[in-house]
Write a structure and sequence with these properties.
Helix content: 25-40%
Number of strands: 5
Strand content: 15-25%
Oligomer: single chain
Mean pLDDT: 77
Largest sheet: 3 strands, antiparallel
Structural class: alpha+beta
Length: about 140
């Protein structure tokens, strides 16, 4: 009897904890328009790497993420005011002057920068650079 009562109490406490975890919903900034492959709108729904990451976190933790499409400048202002909880894909160096600098995770990716010079063939469109590594 005593053991079953303890199990019942633990079940009740776990249920309350589980409910409170599911009740938490964080606002995630995604750029309106497009920022592929990180975030973009497809068939009136948000898609992309950031959405995939937060969907997986949600599946594993039960946390709720709500996507808010805004411009970069407006998103930064809303983050400063505490109206956006998460701004993915931001480097700490970009927010050094911020009054609300945030908390940053480890980098999940690295990128190569493209530097253009006048030496070489004349480029007529950005598509000519896709997949290219240029050494200056």
């Amino acid at each position: 009897m005593k053991g079953s009562l303890m199990r019942w109490w633990w079940s009740v406490l776990f249920a309350i904890y589980s409910w409170s975890v599911h009740a938490v919903c964080y606002t995630v900034m995604v750029y309106h328009g497009a920022n592929p492959p990180y975030s973009f709108e497809s068939n009136s729904q948000f898609s992309g790497l950031f959405v995939d990451i937060f969907d997986e976190i949600s599946a594993q933790t039960g946390l709720c993420f709500e996507y808010l499409p805004v411009s970069v400048a407006r998103g930064q202002r809303l983050f400063e005011k505490g109206e956006i909880d998460i701004e993915p894909g931001v480097s700490p160096t970009w927010r050094q002057e911020s009054t609300n600098p945030g908390i940053y995770s480890y980098f999940y990716a690295r990128s190569r920068e493209i530097i253009l010079a006048r030496v070489g063939p004349v480029l007529t469109s950005p598509e000519q650079l896709y997949g290219q590594v240029m050494i200056v």
